[in-house]
Amino acid sequence: MEKLRLGPLAFTILFSFLVWSSSFETCIAAGRGRHWRQVSASLTKKKTKSSHGSGSSKKHKAPLAPPSPAPVESTPKYSLPAAPPSPAPVESTPKYSPPAAPPEDTGGKSSAQTFNVMDFGAQGDGSSDDTKAFQDAWAAACKVEASTVLVPQGYEFLVGPISFSGTYCQADITFHLDGKIYAPTEADVWGGGLLWWIEFSKLKGITIQGSGTIDGRGSVWWDQAPYDDPIDDDEELAVPSSDTVEGDSTLPVRGEMSSSMPRIKPTALRFYGSFNVTVTGITIQNSPQCHLKFDNCVGVLVHDMAISSPGDSPNTDGIHLQNSKDVLIHSSDLACGDDCISIQTGCSNVYVHNVNCGPGHGISIGSLGRDNTKACVSNITVRDVNMHNTMNGVRIKTWQGGSGSVQGVMFSNIQVSEVEQPIVIDQFYCDKSSCKNQSSAVALSGITYERIRGTYTVKPVHFACSDNVPCVDVTLTAIELMPLQERYHLYDPFCWQTFGLLSTPTVPPIPCLQIGKPAKNRIQSDHDYC
Question: Do you know which PROSITE patterns this protein is assigned to (predicted)?
Fold first, then answer.
């Protein structure tokens, strides 16, 4: 094959064309390279924001790309739409908060949740009978869950015996008392005698609150007490203190109609068969008998309230617990003519703390086992209590002939002042002239006294336990009790059939406590166990 030969001119033209063509492709490639680096750098940055697994080579190349701020500018554009939803929940919060306090928002008028007794015909003048208005307001509130019956401030209501039944009521009703409620003093209102004046029964979640007062006007009942009521047998050991003055002008004026009042005296405020009961803020005063009673209740809370009656008002217990459990009482002032707190049979898991007691008969478990009955009490704690001018401090009292047990009791950090007998166990309790001697008794065990300090006027310790069923596991720690006045006749500590432990020295010494356990102890029958 013959080879192609080019002349000098043709060769020159061909060489020039090849040089020009190479230069043109280099320019195009350079332009394309600059454009790719821009797009590549932009994608690299987007990938870097969405995924931390990008290649290291792109991370290093990214700063080299001048247009990199463009993706940064786009970031706020996508982040701003996410911000607006956040204020919405904040704005909606106030919409749900106003219903939390209906009594304050009604201005004394009834609303969908609040039922003012004034709107149901109550006069509030202290002389008109407002019983029906209270019944009607309750009937309306009963149909509404979490409703409130409002007894407004600035009014005085005369209300006869009344029962707020919850058999068919909704849950969580509040009885908001800011006014004053008075009991009638006409004998015919009470018929043959009633056990209660105001009763709340069979409710789930009932709260009595407010700054108001329940006044039982008990002075019309108290005059006949010396003839009708039993006495506390511990009074026989008590020497009257110098504070007791006949004709004390501070005592209430005795009622002129007392001779016509029924023999059965009512409790001022009673709760029966209810769950989650709260009483707070109010004052109960001058009850004909017990002021505040809980019977067959579960979940009881009493706090920041007051009970007030004269020290000589008979059988006017402050708070009475019976067949109730899971009870908390604290931060309250209790002044009455009997036990500040009385814990009866069927009670368990009771915690009392930060209570002021006096005048009165102290805080008592019992009396238990009356008329040969069985009594069961367990897990009781009473602590951080101040007692002034009371007959007893902390006391357990049982009748002869009873059965059952009291166990797991703690009395701790009790400050006593002018208390006749600060520490008492009495298994020979009798509130009448004489009682039959019987061998059976309620068994007491696991009773702890610690940090009981202050002054006494009669006897520091009185332990009188059953011969057949001695008290066992009685522990005393840091007991410091000093006589108030030497000129009175004082008694030494007394112990009978009481076994336990002195974990620290006591003031005064209590040598009568028998260390350990009794050599012989009656074997309890099945009837005795709780």
Answer: POLYGALACTURONASE (PS00502)
- DSSP element (H, E) containing 421: strand 421-426
Among residues 176, 320, 361, 462, which one is catalytic? 361
pTM summary value: 0.76
Whole-angstrom Cα distance, residue 376 to residue 294?
16
Q: Who has greater pLDDT, 264 or 54?
A: 264
Residue 423 and residue 464: Cα distance in Å, rounded?
11
Query: What pLDDT is stored for residue 32 in this prediction?
Result: 39
Confidence of residue 513 (pLDDT cuts 50, 70, 90): very high
Residue 201 phi, psi (nearest 5): -135, 145
Report residue 98 as tokens.
């106003």
Identity of residue 119: D
Is 361 part of the annotated catalytic residue set? yes
φ/ψ of 190, rounded to 5, equals -95, -5
Beta strand pairing call for 494-496 and 480-483:
unpaired
Whether 318 and 336 have beta carbons less than 8 Å apart is answered as: yes
Among residues 435, 437, 486, 494, which one has the least CA distance to residue 457? 486
Q: Are 180 and 212 in contact (CB under 8 A)?
A: yes
CA distance 148 to 242: 48
Q: Please, which residues have CB within 8 angstroms of residue 4's CB and are 6 or more apart in sequence? A: none
Rounded Cα distance between 95 and 97, Å, is: 6
CA distances from 517 to 439, 469, 498, 512 (A): 19, 12, 9, 14
The helix-helix angle for 8-50 and 69-79 (nearest 10°) equals 30
pLDDT digits (tens, 9 = 90+) for 91-146: 333 332 333 344 444 555 566 799 999 999 999 999 999 999 999 999 999 999 99
For residue 392, give both structure tokens. Answer: 């007893």
Q: What is the dihedral of CA 3, 4, 8, 14, to 10 degrees?
A: -130
Element (H, E) at 450: strand 443-456
Q: What is the 3-state secondary structure of 158-198?
A: ECCCEEEECCCCCCCEEEEECCEEECCCCHHHHCCCCCEEE
* Long-range contact pairs involving 232-235 (C-beta distance under 8 Å, separation at least 24): 232/338, 232/361, 232/391, 232/431, 233/426, 233/429, 233/430, 233/431, 234/361, 234/391, 234/392, 234/395, 234/420, 234/421, 234/424, 234/426, 235/391
Q: Which residues pair with 515 in a beta bridge?
A: 500
d(CA 71, CA 141): 64
pLDDT digits (tens, 9 = 90+) for 438-467: 989 999 999 999 999 999 999 999 999 999
pLDDT tens digits, 281-329: 999 999 999 999 999 999 999 999 999 999 999 999 999 999 999 999 9
As given in the structure block, the two tokens for residue 5 are 């030969």
Contact by Cβ (8 Å): 146, 184 = no
Q: Residues 297, 273: contact at Cβ < 8 Å?
A: yes
- pLDDT at position 6 over 60: no
